[in-house]
Every structure is written in structure tokens, then in C-alpha cells.
């Protein structure tokens, strides 16, 4: 299972700005000429996430879901000829038509009218119209109790962007990563993040008793990520510059 998040951009945007000047974040780096996509007009929204999703679909992946990450606190934009973007797209893709997906682990509270507020039930895998039952219910070899009725998780997730004091400027909120890990893996499974950054995915994975492999080319981000991972699991050690493993198989 693959959870894919990519930002979008506009054709003709992203050219060299003040950051390349003296004292800027990109001082001394080659100036980026901007985005130029043949066949698109200047200011056209490129649609990067969907273009990648369609390419993966053509390559054999199953495109199972489009999740909208709604940001109630988006970054401000200076544009005056279009709305400010307040969402990103997350795709759920799989290599096979049948795969592990724990819908119970990320079920959300049912907000409709129910006869009993203390009703407890587990929704079916398809749909969400299961009538409330009584007491804990069992499925898939596990017993789970809820404080109230639940429904299958929707595909719009409202999660505020999180602040992070480290040097990484695009840290994912842990609340955004958590449902992906809970739905897509069991305890003891390996979670891979090929763009680990500050290792937010790893922090959430370890907290939920998963194993983690993170890949990150930036040494500064690597140092931040290792410190965060060790704060969750002090027994971790670095095998080389880009892999962090457990000393033994037990979490």
C-alpha cells in the first residue's frame, strides 16, 4: 500500500526570487528558472498530483482513493485573481486488488441520529449503515470497543498544519500520518518513508509499535529525524547515513 502526497504548482511560476540574493536561504545556489510545461499556458494549474496518479495507474497500480487534506490554517498567498489554496491531495494506491486495510482502526464518530448514545458497533467493510449493537464486537480476530457509534472514515481530513521548531519547514502533522499507518499496517509491520525529512512518519510508526525505514538525503534533516526517533525509542541506532533500525526485532 502506498500513500502519496504531492503539492501542485502553476505553469510559469517558481522562478528565482529574493531567496537567491545575499543572506537568502538559497544564496549561492543555481537560480531555478521556474516551471515550464509544454502544452500549458502561463498561470495554468499543472495538476501534478493527478498526473502522477494517472501515470502510476497506467503502470499497474490500483488508484483506490483520493483524500483531501483540508487545512484550516493554510499558508497565506499574495494572489488576488484566484482563491487561496487550503488543501492538498493524498492518494491511496495498491499493487493488488485485495490488500490489508483496517477500516476499524480509523473509524470516525457517527454524527447522525441514533437511539442510544452509548451504542457500540463496528461498521461493515462496505458502507456504513450498520445498526448499533451492544457491547464490544469482534471481527478479524480482534475485539474493539467504542464509546459510541462510528462510521467508515470519510475522504476529507481536516488537520491543521503543525508548527515545528527544527530546521525542516514542511513537517507533516502527526495527526495526518496516523490514520495512514493505522489503516495500512499491523503492529510489527515495516513502514517505509522514502522522503523521511524530520521523520514524522517514523515517530508515529514507532509509537504504534511498527518498525520504520526512512530515507533522507539532507544531513541536517537526518540529524533532526534521528533525535526525534530516539526520543520515542532510545534503543535505536544508526546503521549508516540513511537507515535507522532497531537493535533487535522486539519493539
Q: CATH superfamily of the largest domain, called what?
A: Vaccinia Virus protein VP39
Strand and helix order: EHEEEEEEEHEHEHEE
Categorize the overall geometry. globular
Summed over residues and divided by their number, the pLDDT gives a mean of: 79
Number of helices: 4
How many domains is the backbone divided into?
A: 3
CATH architecture of the largest domain: 3-Layer(aba) Sandwich
Please identify the top-level CATH class of the largest domain.
Alpha Beta
Question: What separation lies between the terminal Cα atoms?
Answer: 22 Å
Radius of gyration: 21 Å
- What portion of residues belong to β-strands? 15-25%
- Give a quick account of the main beta sheet: strands, pairing sense, barrel closure: 4 strands, mixed
Given helix and strand content, the structural type is alpha+beta
Number of strands: 12
Q: Which runs of at least 5 residues are low in confidence (pLDDT < 50)? A: 114-146, 238-251
Amino acid at each position: 500500500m502506498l500513500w502519496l502526497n504531492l503539492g501542485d504548482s502553476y505553469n510559469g511560476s517558481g522562478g528565482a526570487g529574493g531567496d537567491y540574493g545575499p543572506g537568502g536561504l538559497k544564496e549561492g545556489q543555481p537560480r531555478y528558472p521556474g516551471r515550464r510545461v509544454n502544452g500549458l499556458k502561463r498561470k495554468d494549474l499543472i495538476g501534478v498530483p493527478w498526473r502522477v496518479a494517472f501515470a502510476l495507474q497506467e503502470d499497474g497500480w490500483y488508484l483506490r482513493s483520493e483524500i483531501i487534506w483540508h487545512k484550516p490554517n493554510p499558508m497565506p498567498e499574495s494572489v488576488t485573481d484566484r482563491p487561496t489554496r487550503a488543501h492538498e491531495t493524498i492518494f491511496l494506491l495498491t499493487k493488488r486488488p485485495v490488500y490489508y486495510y483496517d477500516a476499524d482502526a480509523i473509524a470516525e464518530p457517527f454524527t447522525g441520529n441514533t437511539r442510544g448514545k452509548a451504542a457500540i458497533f463496528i461498521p461493515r467493510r462496505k458502507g456504513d449503515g450498520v445498526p448499533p449493537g451492544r457491547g464490544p464486537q469482534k471481527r478479524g480476530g480482534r475485539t474493539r470497543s467504542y464509546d459510541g457509534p462510528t462510521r467508515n472514515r470519510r475522504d476529507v481530513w481536516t488537520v491543521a498544519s503543525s508548527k515545528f521548531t527544527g530546521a525542516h519547514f514542511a513537517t507533516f502533522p502527526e495527526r495526518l500520518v496516523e490514520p495512514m499507518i493505522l489503516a495500512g499496517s499491523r503492529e510489527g509491520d515495516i513502514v517505509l518513508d522514502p522522503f523521511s525529512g524530520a521523520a514524522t512518519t517514523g515517530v508515529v510508526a514507532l509509537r504504534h509499535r511498527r518498525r520504520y525505514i526512512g530515507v533522507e538525503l539532507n544531513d541536517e534533516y537526518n540529524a533532526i529525524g534521528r533525535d526525534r526517533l530516539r526520543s520515542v525509542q532510545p534503543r535505536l541506532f544508526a546503521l549508516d547515513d540513511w537507515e535507522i533500525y532497531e537493535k533487535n526485532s522486539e519493539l
